[in-house]
Amino acid sequence: MSEETIQDLLRITVRRSGKRAAVLFGEERITYEELDRESNRLANGLKSLGVKETTRVAMMLPNIPEFVCAFLAIQKIGAVAVPINTLYKTAEILHVLRDSGSHVIITLSNYVPAIQEILHETELRHIVSVGERDLTFAHPGCRFLHLILRKDAFGDVDEVYHTMGQILLDIAKRLHVRTAWYKHRGSLRADSKRLGGAVVQETEHDYVITLHLFTGPIDVDDFLEVIWVPPEIRDRIVEPMTSVEEETGTAVTHEVFREVALSVLNTTLGAELIDGNLTRDESFAYQRTKSLSSK
Amino acid sequence: MKRLRVVNAPDTDVGDLIALPGAVAESRIVSPFLMSAQAQDTAIVQSIRRKGILAGVEVQIDLDGARKREIDVAAKPRSGRRGANLVGTISYRELASKASDKFCPHRANGEDVACMLYTSGTTARPKGVLLTQRNFVSAARLVASHLDVRETDVVVAVLPFFHVFGLSNVLVKAIESGAAIALIPRYTPKNLHSALIKFSATILVAIPTMFTHLSKFCEVLKLTLPKTLRYCISGGAAFPKQMIEQFENSLGVRIMEGYGLTESTSALSLNPREKIKPGSIGTPMSGVTMSIINEAGTELPPGQIGEIVVSSPTVAKGYHKLEEESRQLVEHGFLHTGDLGYRDEEGYFYITDRKKDIIICAGENISPREIEEVLLQHPKVEEAAVIGVQMGMRELIKAFVVGNEVTERELLEFCRGKLAPLKAPRAIEFRQMLPKSVTGKVLKKELYPDYRDHTVIEREPRIDV
After folding, report:
1. Which residue is closest to B66 within chain A, CA to CA?
2. Min Cα–Cα distance to chain B from A163, Å
3. Which of A274, B128, B263, B265 is most exposed, with minimal Cβ within 10 Å?
4. Pairing of strands B72-75, B52-55
5. N- to C-terminal Cα distance for chain B?
6. Residue B351 DSSP class
7. How far does B10 lie from chain A, in Å, by closest CA?
């Protein structure tokens, strides 16, 4: 077999000019030799997830070194790359994942909640998340409820999502949003507009859960200007959103949100609620993270 | 759970979104002996006072732009073994760092599918185009007849790799030639300009809107392009001739227009460097046969408008799971591009319209592009898109216009003064913007009155108890 393939193109280049730069990104400079080794490592990693010849591997990534590396790793395995437009919304992502029959998706961690929401409708077996290059927006019109809970309080992750969905839905109903509904593992919506959602993380023993609810109108134009999304594609990347205030005509203060949220927590989790503050250890950890986080 | 500690955080900033729950979670990991007895389950009720962006440690944010709009910016902590991970995910870093750096690659075949690239086309649902190993390798090699990419080159990758143009013409082409790829993860004219300078870029592959932005950006800030930049390549959408000339005159770098489709792994034609004709998509690359045919399938002589058809080793194997469409992809050995155009005496090709966009009025074929060009001549019109709207038995010409301080009546009269009565639009609708694809093509299907957005998640019908 003499015909060339993409990995042959790489092999020839590595042999001829392996020390030359392949990828330049911010302050990073990756040579062709390094790219070759890095994609070998990832190919081994993907193989350990069961990726083999003809397995479809979806990639929903912007132009970052991980895209280059993943594309080459997929080629080395003889698998099939399925790049997904990062501007696609959930229903389009679902179509591509289902139609292609992708078993693995490599994506930024801030797209993960969208994937989780449709996971059960796809053939996906693994989500590989690239965590250092993601981007999240926060708006004062959005209120948050974080829960740090021992894992043994729940049977499995599905139960966590189920409980969290119930909490979100109950809060919304108590705030008189009658059309609110929750899609398992996903978002809270009023009709087809987003009203909130849940992000579930885990450490060894705990779930670290963040619920958010849009209480007041969210205007995202500022954000999109900072990250420079041209106006004509804004509708494409932002799912239609609504808020409690837009649905009911009533603004929700922090105090009202707190009161409703705590009452729902009390009913749903059946726990005694005790007002408290961060402990000394927690305050130190808090200060440390805050000082690292200032840009 | 018996007790839940509640922390009230009414007045915080965006960094606290991570720092507060993070602090609680971290302390519980650090002091595992507390786990059973003293670790408290915690709820934090939080509101933030200002808008904010949380960015992964390796993301660069336009801090000035954020400050101007009073948006706080905070960096997420680097994810470590101790930090919290999203449930049900595997970290890329761990996957790539644990394994060996030796790998015995699978021996692929030229016919094997390398990539399934989804394209929207005319149907509501995107179709998966099956691109083979041979398609990509050929695409990288064909371009050599028209331009030289060397291992000393630095190619700017501002086009997304999830689109065929960036994937084939930038990523795979650079790997084939050993050139360096300078990555721009998020496009802004400023990001693009600083990358060109920072990496001493030699080749810029982009779409018309990016070139237009870049020339405006340089004009306003009185900036130039680096001397290292050898040439630019444009594709993805039509680039009006006067705008190419404006870019070249003000910035002193030539733009070569090219043409390709997802179904042809991009590469089909390009202006050769020796003789560039602005407004033309250039000449076919070596190994590509490109001709113009009429409805009957007969090849047309230079100057006559017909459909562009091509035969090339880069033409896709088919569409995933769509047998009928796959069979129709290539007819009598030729890929029908759906684009209308003509060829000049020197073998340069020009595109006039998309075939499906042609409006049929009183049995006459009308080119929306011709009407759009007339509208664009009006000084108050920034953008224009013309479609045919079904009105009973006939099609009515309707224009969508982006522009200020101009009335429908004024524009209708303007068109009547410059177009045959049959071609003049009957209605004008003003829009803030026109729907566009990532490459800047106007998505005309979204302008039709019966267009339905398929991208929204709807609740499955069910009865609530």
Report:
1. A226
2. 14
3. A274
4. parallel
5. 29
6. E
7. 6
Residue B37 has pLDDT above 50, yes or no: no
Number of CB pairs, chain A paired with chain B, less than 8 A apart: 501
Contact A205/B90, CB-based, under 8 Å?
no
Whether the Cβ atoms of residue A212 and residue A137 lie closer than 8 Å to each other = no
Asked if residue A116 lies in contact with residue B88, where contact means CB atoms within 8 angstroms, the answer is: yes
What superfamily would CATH give domain B358-447?
ANL, C-terminal domain (3.30.300.30)
Q: Is B123 on the interface with A (CB under 8 A)?
A: no
Q: Does B39 touch chain A (CB under 8 A)?
A: yes
Topology of the domain covering B113-354: Rossmann fold (3.40.50)
With an 8 Å Cβ cutoff, are B23 and A294 in contact? no
Q: Indicate the pTM of the whole model.
A: 0.90
Q: How would CATH label the architecture of A142-273?
A: 2-Layer Sandwich (3.30)
Determine the 3-state secondary structure of B405 from DSSP.
coil
For the cut 90, the answer to whether the pLDDT of residue A132 exceeds it is no
**How many C-alpha atoms does A209 have within 13 Å on its Cβ side?**
26
Nearest Cα neighbor of B29 from A211, A289, A282 is: A282
List C-alpha distances in Å: B455 to A91, A93, A193: 5, 9, 12
Residue B116, classed as helix, strand or coil, is strand
C-beta separation of A120 from A185 below 8 A: yes
Residue spans per domain, chain A: 6-130, 142-273
Distance of residue B346 Cα from the nearest chain A Cα, in angstroms: 34
Instruction: Convert the pLDDT of each residue in A9-33 to its tens digit.
Output: 999 999 999 999 999 998 899 999 9
Question: Please, which pLDDT band fits residue B439 given cuts at 50, 70 and 90?
Answer: confident
Q: What is the ipTM for the molecules in this complex? A: 0.91
Rounded to an integer, what distance in angstroms lies between the CA atom of residue A73 and that of residue A36? 9
For B131-145, what is the HEC assignment?
EEHHHHHHHHHHHHH
Query: In chain B, which residues have their Cβ closer than 8 Å to the Cβ of A84?
Result: 118, 162
Taking CA–CA distances from A189, the nearest residue in chain B reads B459
* Contact residues on chain B for A87, CB-CB shorter than 8 A: 438
Q: Which letter does DSSP use for residue B99 in this model?
A: S
> Does residue B35 surpass a pLDDT of 60?
no
